[in-house]
Amino acid sequence: MLSDTDQLHRPVVAGLSRKRVRLHAAVNMSRPARIVPSLLLVVVMVLHSGRCAGAQPPVSVPGVLREFRGVWVATGWNIDWPTQPGLSAAAQQNEVRQMLDRVVALGLNAVVLQVRSEADAIYPSQQPWSRSLTGTSGEGPQPAYDPLQYWIRQAHSRGLELHAWINPFRVQSSSRAVAAEHISRTAPELVVRYGEQRWLDPGHPGSIAHVLQVIEDLLQRYDVDGLHLDDYFYPYPIRDDAGAVVEFPDTASWENYLRQGGQYSRSDWRRSRVSRLVSLIRARVRRLKPDIRFGISPFGLPGRGLLPQVGGLDQYEELYADPQRWAERSWCDYLTPQLYWRTTDSKRAFGMLLNHWSGLQKSSLQIWPGLNASAVADGQSGWTGKEIADQIRLTREFLTVPGHVHFSARALLRDGSDLFAELRQSVYQEPAAVPVRAGLTERIGGKPTVSLSGRVLSVSTAGARPRRWCLQTRDQNGQWQQWLLSGELDQLQVPVGAAEVAVSALDQLSRQGEVVRLLVR
Fold first, then answer.
1. How many Å apart are CA 81 and CA 112, to the nearest integer?
2. What confidence tens digit (pLDDT) does each residue in 166-198 have?
3. Which residues pair with 299 in a beta bridge?
């Protein structure tokens, strides 16, 4: 298990196209260095206004390579965390630390953590505690602690973003007993049964109001870096014994809409409910936490007849989701379509789907697809680590601001994983910072205070601690090596052979401060 103090790797830009390097420059690192001490005598000369003792610095310092590299951590049904219900608080926390250490070791920079899976929560709230924690709905971990707060603190200490992932309308996936404070018991008028499942009825005004209240509480109390919705709006269709699709039971809400003079068809009305939720969430996010990201991960096939040759489920007609409209209205900051097909798929090739979705990207909206790491871990035919690496390379060619999210953590990060090794050695050799959210400047003021003794750089800032330090070193041949390190460090190690170092701070929004350059002789 690698940790924040494992040996510093020496990254190169392998796996990144020349085009991408030019567009997004370069930097980085994934974890602090532990380098064997050198006997070199180091003399430092600080560069003022690009000069030192009358000499010009040889080249400009490269900029920060930016790519969103995320992983979904599913808590429902103990898919990823905790690995089983009923673990002690200490055991749950140990799993958090181990998982995040692996996230850093692989070279990822963001975690999308499921905090609400069935109208419940992994944090103390008016919703019942998730049964994934203890095995019983409504029972919190023992000894008592706040799991979400712990995840946030541990992620931020490692320089990672943490996005809170919620399922807005799903209430229950089975008929298991729920706590007294569960919405199916406190507000049963909002809930309908669909097969063995229970759902909030999106057509009932109280359902959207409830979801917005949950989100407001979450954003007001927790320092998350993003809010994330998945593809479960209206449920995936189920069929009866004869094979016919079972109609979602929202007739009462639909008839009420008609009595009030509604003119939409039933399908358009359902889509309008989902789109209303998305637009209202966007407004809440911008009002309560204007700098964080709001993202959605829709089903990977666009539907609406946009790619008729691919067939499959039509999310526009069957899930009542309209990602094209959300993109046109800039109601979210990123879309993560779940592109869970291989590059060689005869009907739904990854590249073809990515090409379609990339047409939605613009300055205010990024497309960062979801990748099917679980298919590799499960040994599904045709799925290899190289397949996932090839998909990542395609995103770097198709997307203006590259990024992707893996499903899911257990499949991607397990010890001895061939997938982990393949990605680490190919496409993640060069660590990356998360892109700055659209509408925010990438550069800010604030020059760090830097001093060097031997090969130890002491670093500090006048204000709040940075999320990450950006350390760059240039050798005698003019080649730059670059790392991103935890902002909680006060000292950074300079590798042997460095002729110059450059240090800057990245804040919690990934904006870069002024660069301090030091010559090393």
1. 12
2. 999 999 999 899 999 999 999 999 999 999 999
3. 338
Query: Does domain 68-425 fall into CATH 3.30.420.40?
Result: no
Residue 58 pLDDT? 53
pLDDT digits (tens, 9 = 90+) for 98-108: 999 999 999 99
Can the peptide bond before residue 431 be classed as cis, meaning omega within 30 degrees of 0?
A: no
Sheet strands side by side (includes 449-453): 449-453, 456-460, 491-493
CATH architecture of the domain with range 18-65+442-520: Sandwich (2.60)
pLDDT at residue 57 in the model: 52
Lookup: tokens for 119: 């109208």
Contact 389, 89 (CB under 8 A): no
- The single residue listed with the structure tokens 């998350």 is 224
What end-to-end distance do the CA atoms of the chain give, in Å?
36
Strands (E), 297-427: 334-335, 366-367, 370-371, 403-406
Instruction: Say which DSSP state 317 is in.
Output: I
Cβ density class 229-238: b for 16+ within 10 Å, e for less: bbbbbbbebe
- pTM reported for the whole predicted model: 0.89
